[in-house]
């Protein structure tokens, strides 16, 4: 398995094992944050184009384009936003799991150095 995609598919999903993450999260593609960001940008540009055609110019065009596109995105891009949040949550969970595994392995190495006596008694 030299292909990175095949290796990634062969590994179990760590996020599904975490208690705070839904095991059956919807599939939103490989890069849900990028998809959501591009969709937000597309909505912003479309709203700005419509406002420009309606005669709005300068700072007012930018201000109203951001305001209106934000409201539209809040409703129209709900699914993509949830997909991005699953992606971020899963990535953070995987990083936290690696940190915990590393700390656990380091603690085990520390106890191995103590020899057969084990850890010192707690006072």
Describe this protein's structure.
The protein is built from five helices and no strands. By secondary structure, the protein is mostly helical. It has a domain at 28-112. Helix 3 (32-53) packs across helix 4. The longest helix is centred in the last third of the chain and has 36 residues, at 78-113.
Q: How does the SSE layout of this entry go?
A:
Blueprint: H1 4-10, H2 14-17, H3 32-53, H4 58-76, H5 78-113
Helix pairs in contact: 3-4, 3-5
Quick description:
The protein is an all-alpha fold and 123 residues long. It is built from 5 helices and no strands. Mean pLDDT is 78; it is low at 7-25.
The low-confidence parts are 7-25
User: Based on DSSP secondary structure assignment, what is the total number of beta strands?
Assistant: 0
Query: Helical element count?
Result: 5
Distance between the termini: 51 Å
- Rg (C-alpha, Å): 24 Å
Q: Largest sheet, if any?
A: none
Q: How much β-strand is present in the residues?
A: under 5%
Portion of residues within helices: over 70%
The SSE order reads HHHHH
Query: In one word, what is the shape?
Result: rod-shaped
Helix-strand category: mainly alpha
Mean pLDDT: 78
């Amino acid at each position: 398995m030299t292909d990175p995609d095949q290796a990634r598919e062969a590994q179990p999903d760590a996020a599904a094992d975490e208690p705070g993450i839904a095991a059956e999260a919807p599939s939103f593609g490989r890069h849900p944050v990028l998809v959501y960001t591009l969709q937000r940008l597309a909505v912003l540009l479309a709203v700005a184009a419509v406002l420009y055609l309606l005669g709005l110019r300068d700072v007012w065009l930018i201000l109203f384009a951001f305001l209106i596109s934000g409201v539209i995105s809040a409703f129209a891009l709900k699914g993509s936003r949830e997909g991005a949040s699953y992606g971020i949550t899963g990535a953070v969970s995987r990083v936290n799991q690696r940190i915990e595994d590393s700390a656990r392995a380091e603690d085990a190495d520390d106890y191995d150095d103590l020899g057969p006596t084990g850890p010192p008694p707690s006072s």
